[in-house]
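A reminder before we start the practical. When you read a complex entry, don't treat the lines as separate problems. The point of joint prediction is that each chain is placed relative to the others, so the output describes one connected object in space. Small molecules and nucleic acid strands, if listed, are placed in the same frame. In the example below there are four entries. Take a minute to note the order of the lines before looking further.
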Amino acid sequence: MYRMNSDYTEGCVEQVLKKLVETNMDQTNGYGEDEYCDEAKALIKKTFACEDALVQFLIGGTQANFTLICASLRPHQAVIATNLAHIATHEAGAIEHTGHKVLEQPTSDGKLTAAQIEAAYQKYVTDPARPHWAQPKMVYISQPTETGSLYSKKELNDLYAVCQEHDLYLYIDGARLAYAFGSDENDLAVEDLAKTCDAFYAGGTKCGLLFGEAMVIINDKLKEDFFSIAKASGGILAKGRLLGVQFGEIFKDGLYFAIGKKACTQAKRIREAVLARGLELVTYTSTNQIFIKMSKEQFEKLSSEFALSHSGYLPDGSYSIRICTSWATKDEEVEKIINMIKEL
Amino acid sequence: MYRMNSDYTEGCVEQVLKKLVETNMDQTNGYGEDEYCDEAKALIKKTFACEDALVQFLIGGTQANFTLICASLRPHQAVIATNLAHIATHEAGAIEHTGHKVLEQPTSDGKLTAAQIEAAYQKYVTDPARPHWAQPKMVYISQPTETGSLYSKKELNDLYAVCQEHDLYLYIDGARLAYAFGSDENDLAVEDLAKTCDAFYAGGTKCGLLFGEAMVIINDKLKEDFFSIAKASGGILAKGRLLGVQFGEIFKDGLYFAIGKKACTQAKRIREAVLARGLELVTYTSTNQIFIKMSKEQFEKLSSEFALSHSGYLPDGSYSIRICTSWATKDEEVEKIINMIKEL
Amino acid sequence: MYRMNSDYTEGCVEQVLKKLVETNMDQTNGYGEDEYCDEAKALIKKTFACEDALVQFLIGGTQANFTLICASLRPHQAVIATNLAHIATHEAGAIEHTGHKVLEQPTSDGKLTAAQIEAAYQKYVTDPARPHWAQPKMVYISQPTETGSLYSKKELNDLYAVCQEHDLYLYIDGARLAYAFGSDENDLAVEDLAKTCDAFYAGGTKCGLLFGEAMVIINDKLKEDFFSIAKASGGILAKGRLLGVQFGEIFKDGLYFAIGKKACTQAKRIREAVLARGLELVTYTSTNQIFIKMSKEQFEKLSSEFALSHSGYLPDGSYSIRICTSWATKDEEVEKIINMIKEL
Amino acid sequence: MYRMNSDYTEGCVEQVLKKLVETNMDQTNGYGEDEYCDEAKALIKKTFACEDALVQFLIGGTQANFTLICASLRPHQAVIATNLAHIATHEAGAIEHTGHKVLEQPTSDGKLTAAQIEAAYQKYVTDPARPHWAQPKMVYISQPTETGSLYSKKELNDLYAVCQEHDLYLYIDGARLAYAFGSDENDLAVEDLAKTCDAFYAGGTKCGLLFGEAMVIINDKLKEDFFSIAKASGGILAKGRLLGVQFGEIFKDGLYFAIGKKACTQAKRIREAVLARGLELVTYTSTNQIFIKMSKEQFEKLSSEFALSHSGYLPDGSYSIRICTSWATKDEEVEKIINMIKEL
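Here is the predicted structure of the whole assembly.
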């Protein structure tokens, strides 16, 4: 039995594990005040070409999102996102728990458009009763999106342009960021990401680490006392060096991007087999997730050997099935599932 | 220049004002611990045939809503409402400010349906990742709705039945409750309202008082320490007897319902004039609000004598104009606007 | 039976009531967008010599406090106050409900000292684990204090100096502000109050109005979108003109200060009778509250004719009894209680 | 240079690391729905003799505290704790951030007494203005305390008795629980802990794991939907099995208690050397922390070889220095510091 139901079914990449073992008995200060963290932060800032950014390691994705959002907004302010956004769905209302409304915009491919931001902003700003509404102040997107799609460089620039025009912050959830840069359809240079937003995080949990997310804050207005707000939000790890050790390894020599590339390549092989077999994609993706329309029988057949994610029903009653590759997906698994797909 | 742009353009009905003047120098205890409040609460419980209810006077509508909701829900729980609900629109994100998500359901006539509740509940309860979602636990409706429509007795019973089946609380915002019972299309007995919900409030601000809302909590689970939560929410008036005095007067001898009836009758006269003139209604109403499709010119012509509310643009670019009557609307105003409508 | 147990046992001063009656059927816009509010705000700014201030009318004191505090602070920030401060005692945890810690400082006379602020700030700023603590960012005081004492001009200037030195906001709760200026020991000019703080409110509820508080924000940093945050906090009155009408009357021709003066004079007469009788004060006051040490028997004797407030037990088991005068206290009441005190 | 400044300077115990390495490429479900978690939970329930408890693994201590507290309390409720409690000090206001007041009680030895709880409860319950106060509903203690002291079995039973009498929840923060049971002065059986409280957590971060805390909820009232509230609070690890693997190892064959014992023994050796040298303890401890009164010179001398924690100044200007042992403290370190202490 194999698992392709998510990208967090294994532990961490070999190099990271090795380094954790090697450094296990080292003595360091707590809470990220150690050399491993210093070096990893420097490496991340260099990688993303944002020397003046503030980097803060956090533990998980939901936490990264609500901490950044609640640190950035005043009590009456809200965040624009798609209705499929992680903050609108699988965070158990965490953003509202910190006091802020998510202004959900409809999407079919997981992406938000600059036109939607413009419309949401105009709806607010032109309303004579404007002070009676929650105020849009931040835009949240994921790269790649929750449904595996990818923003192009132009799309990101357009999103950021409309945000800057209206004094909205743009925040990018990079839970699967390695798989964005790993897509063969990606046209954004790594060094350009920080130029298209006010803050983003480079995900570790889904991209090769045991756990951990690297929040990168570009906009000075969002930096002040971020550590304290993260502390009050439960996001600061006592043995903070564990995050420094992990991120230091995964960003060394381009490993983060290499594992992303590999996972996307494995996903592409499966996607091509799906299409070759004549199955339909529920939504187009070029990253590490594939959403396939299947009959109940097809799903059950595959399920005899693979744990997959049944992510919903389609209008005609058939299934939407997610297959997920990751840094850990082995060739034998890919070959096995391709062979099974051929015979569906 | 007259105002028909809202139902809170004047002070309070004559009897209420008279009683406030008469009792002005009376000395009483604060915070609602006085005889005026005791009597008014008893009168309200008798009126709505709910002797075991807890009645708590609050100051305003937004406050009434977020206090009841935050007192009722645990941190991960959410409230189902339409996308036009007051809590989803003109409360500046007050519900989220207390930590809870509003699960917005689309509506065109302002009403929520039992089928929508069922669907929202099923979406949650059948999701394998259910514990990762905000949990629907309360349903919020307004009677009449924000767009002036009215739930029938059957509709209310159906809503409450689905709520009870799934252990959801049903809460009714009665900001304009007098105008619900005043509609000639209303088929719900006053004594039946408390049987169709877990809590409701009878609005004073829009229904004849200077200010004030009477929260009526039927379900025992929602009663405990409600005063303290209202206090922490800024909802307790120091000179609480002002609410007792006002509610005592307005519920005496059916005055609340008489003023509601009168406002609906005035609205009906205007509505009929609108239809006679050949204008279209944006949405059908039988209460004290009328939404009319007008050209810019028609709106401006009426605006020379009446302050009205321009509540939005219709798909063809024409205006949606709200005319609002109230307990205070005088015959001369109604005649005046009818004459102007005839000549639009 | 008379009531001297609080300063909110009656309605409002005659002139205010008269104006409310006169303007009752006027039609105005809602939410404070009316001429009465405009005029009252201008009058208040002129009175306190702060033409650039933002004035926002709110409904009650607890609400005024938590709204200003939550609008001013970021998530990890805290407010310094005495352990007898209203925000630390009789607000049911309202400040914490908005997410902020109250850093309580011990007091015996109700006053906070500049030295206490300095010490609390130094404790924070010199702690190597500083980012792990709630950050003091605002100082809350009441003028007069909850126990009736009064800050001198020098004390206020000293408090503000230490606040400005450490970039802390100073906020003054003026629930009984009329009685501060009414004390014959007050040495602060009305025009100087706004120069000693970042924000204050002039209380109406306890100072002659039916209800209402006038928040006056001096510091530009605290002004932005204050209306929206007040709206989300339930502090905006629909019939906002009621606050404009009331504050417009009470600040006309120095009425606010005249009623304050009168109440303090009445309190002084009673205080002198208390001392003449040989009773002890629990704490010294020169405003409208008197705290007297009494035996159970003395308290019960007075209670036969007066409702008074039993505010606690003293170490030797005797009672601390509060007598409260107000704008409404009549000469006959004062004479009556003085005669009874003589015979205790 | 050695570190004895905290008990989280190293990674994790050898057996835990070994198991993490062995299981690294195992594929499991996320969020704790895996066999490692199931087994570890069963082991913990067996160890603490509470088969009906709900066990939920969380990531860190601050998070464990605020999640349990906010899941347990209604909006107006507060938690009683000492002024040295972790929730009152080093959590950056996290409890208030979730909306709840910490009712701080003075302590010199870090312990709360049953008498203090009784007094705080009586103060609330006998106040005529009770509904205007934050309501005490939970008691928070740490075992061992933040200053290294230990509750006896009788003390815990007394605390729980007063809590049960007044319907207050008792919650025990066991961040250093291994070191409580490791003290040679401990008289509480492991199987009795769950009988003295409504919930506790067994700390992993400071007791041999990389990170992680095991929340054990005994009282049924506090169990419902705890996972969802933890999710909304950022406390759920995606690769949840990492917590199962770690707790499964540390609770196997009494390892948790063995490492606690060892650390306490090391601390005892140092404490005895301190006393033999004629130095004073700041506060008496029998667990893994020692607080010693030192001159500046003595501290600096020790600091040449050991990183220690300067936890404050004593009234006479001398230093309070914390020495902390842990599961990782080696004999050579202990011998080294003892030799240095002899020569201070």
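Discuss with your neighbour: Chain B has a mean pLDDT of 97. What might explain this?
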